[in-house]
Structure formats: C-alpha cells, structure tokens
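Cont'd.
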Amino acid sequence: MRTQKNADCGLRIADLKSEIANPKSEIKTITVAVAGNPNSGKSTLINAIAGTRLYVGNWPGVTVEKKSALFEYEGTNIKLVDLPGTYSLSPYTQEEIIARDYLVHEKPDVIVNVVDATNLERNLYLTVQLLELGIPVVIALNIYDEAEKKGYKIDTKAMEKILGVEVIPTVATKKMGLDNLLKAITNITNSVSMHRPKKLNYGSDIESSVSIVEKQIQNSYSQLSEKYPLRWLAFKLMERDSHVMEEINIENQSFIEEATRHLKKAHGEDMESIMADARYAVAAGLTREVLKKPEFKKMELTEKIDKIVLNRFLGIPIFLAAMWLVFKLTFDVSAPFGDWIDAMTAGPFRRWAEVILGFAHAPAWTASLATDGIIAGVGFVLVFVPVIFAMMFFITFLEGSGYMARAAFVMDRAMHSMGLHGKSFIPMLLGFGCNVPAVYATRVLENPRDKALTSLLIPLMSCGARLPVYVVFIGAFFTAYVGTVLWSLYVMGIALAVLMGIIFKRTLFKGESPMFIMELPPYRMPSFRSLMIHTWEKGKHFLIKAGTYILAVSILVWFLLNLPWGVEHKKDSYLGKMGQVIAPVLAPLGFGNWEAASSLVSGLIAKEIVVGTMGEIYVQKAADENKETPTLTEDLKEMGTSFAGAVKDSAANLISTFGMASLSSKESTEETKERTPLRDVIKGQFTPLTAYAFITFVLLYMPCIVVAIAMRQEFGTWKWFGIAFAYQMVLAWVVAFVIYQGGRLLGLG
Amino acid sequence: MNLANLKPGEHGKITKMGAMGPLKRRLMDMGVLVGEKVKVEKIAPLGDPIEVTIKNYNLSLRKKEAEGIEVEVVK
C-alpha cells in the first residue's frame, strides 16, 4: 500500500490538501488490549463498552475465542482486543500463551488491566507482570461498588503514584466509570512518553541480576532487544521460560546461569519460584499500602450460600435439582419455538415455494430440490437455533453467577474417575436433550484435553432424536415393558460412556490428567445485557457457520435419496444401493437387509430420520392427501397465531418446570400404544431380539451430522469427529452383535 | 503434615512446595506460596476436592494436588 502511495505523488498531494481542509481526517487508530483475571468482570466491561460492535472469532490456530471491536471515541479510533482471562503470564496454558504472545509481538498501544477491587492482591500479581512489558497501562479498578460495600478503602491516588499508571474505578455491570476509562486511554496515546509505567523494584539481588542479563542481551543479541521488551526478556531468560527459550534459540546461555547462580543458592529455589515470590511480594506490599479493610469481617453472602450449597449432605441433592432445572428450562423453553419453525418450513414456506416454482413452470425435480432439499435444509438449521440460544443463556448464567465452579467442585470426584473434569457434567447432561448444544457447551472446559474427551463421550448420551426410533420399536414389540426397555437404553449409554471414558483415559489421553486448581468466585448476579450479548453471539455464530455446512449436507442427502432422477423404487436410489452394500455387514447383528441398512444411513442427518426413511420404504405412501391448500392470507394468519401459541407454550413450560409438573413421560407412553401402519410392518420384519439389537445400534452408532459440524466448529478440525465416528461404529456393532448372538444362544431369537 | 491432612476449619502455614513444573507454577500463580497462611474451608460432598481460603479468596484443588503442599498447623 505504502509504496503504491509513494509512487503516486498526485494522490498524496490530494490527500494532504484534504487533510488541511479537514483536520478530522487525521483520525488516529490505537490498539487497546484488555487483560485481566477470570471473574474480574472483564467480559462484562467489554460488553458494556463495545456491546453489539463486538466481533467474535478465534485466535489463530486455536479454538480459544477472540473478541475484538472497532469504534470511535472523541476523535480517536479505538481497536479493542479482548485477551483471554488469565491469572498470570506463565508459559503453561493456552490462554496465557495467547495473551503474552499478543502483548509481546503485536505491541498494542495501551493495555487496559481489569482488576477486581475485592480481590486486590491476586489481581495485582498479573498487573505486576503486565508492567514488566513497558507498555502503557490503565487499570480499570472494577467491581468497585462491591469493594465499597465491604468497607474497603482503596487509595487510588497512592496506587497511581506507585505504579505510574492511571487507576479508574469502574462498575461494569452498572456502566459506571467507562467514560473516564476511555478518556484515560485516549489521553495516554497523546503523550506516550509521559505514561511509561514505573519499573517496580523486585529487591536488590534480583535487580542486580536482571541488569547484568539486560546488558548481555544488548551487547551480544542486540537484534533481540529490538524485538522484545528488554526487561521482560531478561526476566524470561532468568526464569528459563520454555516458550521464550524456544522462540529465540540462543546458543550461549552460560551468562544467564552466572547471573542467577547466587540467587538460586540464596533462596534454595528455582528461578521461576523466586520470581513468582518476588512478584507476589510486590503485589502484597502494594496492597498493604493502598487498601484499608474493616477490622471485623462480616459473614458474606457467598459464605452463607456455600454453607448450604456445598454442604456434605445437601450439596448433591441441590446440585441435582439445579441441573434438572437447567435441563428442563433449556429444552422446554426452546421446544415450542423449534416446533413452530419446523411447522412453518414444512407448511407455508414449502407451499409458497411450490406455488412460485409452479408459476415458473420449473421441472418437477427442481421443485423437489427446492422443497425437500433447500427449504427442508434451512428449516433443519433453524430448528436448532432456539435450543442453542436457550443453552447459551443458561450456561452463561451458571458461569457468570459463580455456580458453575461449585457444580464442578461437587461433581469432580465422580467425573475425575472417568478422566473428566467436574465441569464436564453439564455438557454431558445436556446431551440427553440434544447432543448439539451439548458439544457447544464443552466450552465451559478450559483445558483442550477435557474438552475433547467430553465431546467424544457426549454422543453416548441418548438424545431426544433417538426417542422416536425407540418408540416405534418398543410400540411394536415391548408394550408390556415400555419403561424397562427405555430405561435400559439410557443406562446402557451411561455405562458405556463410563467404560469408554476409562479406556480413553488410558489410551488416547494417556499421561497426567489436567489439574483442578480452580477459583470459587463470589456469587454475583450477571448483568442481563451481558447474558443477552453472549447468547446472541453464539446463536449468530451457529446460524452462519454451522448453518452453511448443514444446508450443504442436507442438499447432498437429497441427491442421494432421489438420484438417479425418476427412480420408481427406493431400492434403486443411491441410498438404497448404499443400503444393499452395507446390509451384509449388519447380518451378524440380526438386521442384514437393505431396508434397515438404508434407514440407518439416512440417520446420519438426524437419528429420528431413521423412522421417516423406514416409513417411506416399508409403507406404501398413502393416496395423495385431499386437503385443501390454504391461501396466502390463511398461511400468514396461521404463522402469527401459531407463533403466539409457541410463546404461550414456552411460558407455560417455564411455569410448569417450576411447578415440577412433567407431562412428557405420559405422552410418550401414550404414543407407544397407538397403532400405526409402520409398526405393523416392523412386526413382520423384526423379532423382539433383532428389534432390541437394532435400537441399541441406533443408540450407539455414529453421531449425526449436526454434532459432527458442532465438533468441527469447536475444535477447528475433523479429527475428533473422526475418532467419535470410528469408535462408535465399532462399539455399536460389537454391542448389537453380543445382544443378538447372545440372545440366540440363550434361545431368545 | 500436608494441606490434604488439615481438617475443615483448621489453619495452616505453608512451609514447603513439593510440587514440580507446571503444577507448582500454577499453584504459585494462584498465590499458594511458602509462608502463606491457608485455611481449609470444606471438603466436597464426595470427599474430594477441597476448598481453601488463601490470600483472601477461595480456591479449590484436588487432594492429590494438596498433598504436595507441606504445612504446619497454626492455632
């Protein structure tokens, strides 16, 4: 760009002229990185400042979320970049490496350090490390209202003097102090040299060592001192920071050893520990100087709640009740809207498309592609939106309120035995409703290993889409044991998840399981605005990113089902042909016919489709429905009234959840007693034994395509879906084999 | 005596950090340092992990991680 501009002098002069005429055009753009501890209210602060201008993406190469925003404030363009919440800048966690790499290599103009005023010392430990970088810092002393309520007196003026940075009290949840914060940011960039943070003194022995190392770097590796902040680099070399050592790769390291030998000897520790101690000593000293606490501590609300919530006897029942509530709310509140979208795309939208294509005299196959392929596909994507919104809302609430950490604390022992983290319980539980939001919910897990293992086990949780398959077969064969058979499937899924968890822990994820060093933050009411922004971001992300994939796949499946165009019998379609190829593999399981095999293949889209395909294959289509086609106005009216109905149902579900009334189990038993033509045909095609083997296979075999796409999105690679697909196929085959052949040996077949 | 041996309500003072590598660094980053006072608040309903107060905030860690932290009981 620059060379082009230089070449074209005329353009430059024109630019200059317009600048003189209009001084506003020299708007400066500054980059502001926001750093802070988890639970410091950092994301609430970002949401409060940037709101809907936030852009959510990923940090390159990893699946950690990156939020940024670009906006103008009083004549300055501010580019805000949210760094992952960290307690430190060590080289061990993904989040910390991302944060430090950004600060060191991208060199933002200003760092906004969000500090929790109620937890000064531990938060200042990060501040101390940020100051080592020599980048101007503004401290947002957040949650200031709570600190005041506790009777804390913080001398911000003294803090500013000691640290050499501006300290702005803020209350992000109430949008207080944000204007002052933005002013402080823009002030800094007008006179950077005056705002260099002070060099904090880590004690004479450390300081003399660091100055030796600094000199050595300047003398022997001057190119490094241009690339890195000198003092920071010297500390990293002294600490033998693995990440930095690898990056700079210097040969002669003996000068580091020389400079630090006496320190290690005097402290009897490694340098990393000596430095952590020194930084905390500075943070503690600073805290002593600026913070005055009341002498008597009141019993705080968090303590009172935890006394009950984490009680030895009440802890687990309360946890289970809370989980039940989250599950019910997520699925019950969203279901009526999902049903409404489903009905709309299957009804009016489909009819309108048919009418339009009819007018255009489009050939029959385009009409089929448009309705069965595209419109059905779009509907299929949209149906997931309400449940993903609902899930994100409640998960964000659990995290923001502080209960998520408690849930992990209560459940960790049980989950740890399968190699998982206490927080894994929530995604696994959501899996019983739908595996898709469950996979997205794994984002509550920070460690990539925990995330991957949890995602691999989620598909074994029997989701709602598998129920229609069970219902058909149970209705045909096991009407006397509806409850027992259903229960056996759910329990089998859980038992196999435990088993597979233990196997994966010892094979795929061999080695130390990640640590469980977790803060239990004070309970806080998350701001509604922040909740809504998070929920909206996630829903939007799903619609755009996952939606495109799902749509593409559903069109592909339409081709599979319908090509070659004009086939009279499903057996001759590609799907039928695939079924014929696969059938022999399924023969040892007791259902080796092309009809069953084709139905199973179609279940890749969603497991309930197995029933639909079976219906199409086994049951001759009923004569064309003689229903009258509604007019456009009737359709529109219907859309409105049924949406109102959905809102009403959702509200009713919300109320009934709290009223502890559940109708769903009653409905499904009623359904199983109904007689349908499909059920009669199945009775002739299966035996009770093969039927049970078949529904077990449906429970266990491959995750559906939407889960695959969710996994791809969460991990940025198809790898984990590939592993899930492979192990589930084998598992389903083996278990169905054992059931069928075992049953035959026992004389049940 | 290590941190996992303390009973709920008991106070201790950290005398030695036995952990190594990333675990040690993580603990130190969270303020678990030699000389620091620590109080065991609770044990989880299933017996593990434990909750402690350190540097004026609440931290939970597994017993196995607490075993590497030597303490002396403080009355």
